Amino acid sequence: ILIDQGLADQFLAEQLNPDVFEAACKAAGQPLTLRRHAGYDHGYYFISTFIEDHIAHHAKIFSTELCRSEERIPTG
């Protein structure tokens, strides 16, 4: 899981609670990359700044899963 969190987000403390999510991932053994960014809120500029990283992250995961699934498909 990859999360980028703006530290100036108006929803941070009362609704998003990334520290709680981070603790839950740790307790469950779920890998998490939680990147906190000072000066960013929840707006378009924040999303447009980090979206490329998220697309690359998902592409890496999907390509890995695709390779795994192809290994399981019987050929011929």
UniProtKB/TrEMBL annotation:
The UniProt entry's sequence similarity note says:
Belongs to the esterase D family.
* Enzyme Commission numbers on file: 3.1.2.12
**Name this polypeptide is given:** S-formylglutathione hydrolase
Short name of any one Pfam family annotated for the protein: Esterase
UniProt-listed InterPro entries: AB_hydrolase_fold, Esterase-like, S-formylglutathione_hydrol
Catalyzed reaction equations: S-formylglutathione + H2O = formate + glutathione + H(+)
PANTHER family per UniProt:
S-FORMYLGLUTATHIONE HYDROLASE
Q: What is the lineage of its organism?
A: Bacteria, Pseudomonadati, Pseudomonadota, Betaproteobacteria, Burkholderiales
